[in-house]
Amino acid sequence: MTLTVSTKGQMVIPTKIRKKYNIHPQTKVELIDKGNEIVIIPLPKDPFRDARGILKGVSTQDLLKFRQQEKRIEQQKYKKYGISA
């Protein structure tokens, strides 16, 4: 799909795309520069409500194990560069 940027730097997102991604007037979007491409991500109006349930099936123990693994990796990086954590 090809879009044209106006002299004011604006572009129109086609209706089909707006409907598919639930983009309405006043919807905030984030532009991410990936070096050779730009990604447009619609942001939810209420991120806390939209995040509800994303960790369904993940226990506190799972999260603690994951954090311990991350901490070990961080400590190895510090050790590699002679930095004390």
What are the salient characteristics of this protein?
85 residues, alpha+beta, Pemi-like Protein 1, Chain: D, 2 domains, two-stranded antiparallel sheet, 3 helices, 38% helix, 12% strand
Sheet with the most strands? 2 strands, antiparallel
Give the C-alpha Rg: 21 Å
CATH topology tier name of the largest domain: Pemi-like Protein 1, Chain: D
Order of helices and strands: HEEHH
Helix content: 25-40%
CATH architecture of the largest domain: Ribbon
Average pLDDT level: 89
**Structural class assignment:** alpha+beta
Structural features, described:
This protein is 38% helix and 12% strand. It has 85 residues and is an alpha+beta fold. The protein has a two-stranded antiparallel ribbon. The mean pLDDT is 89.
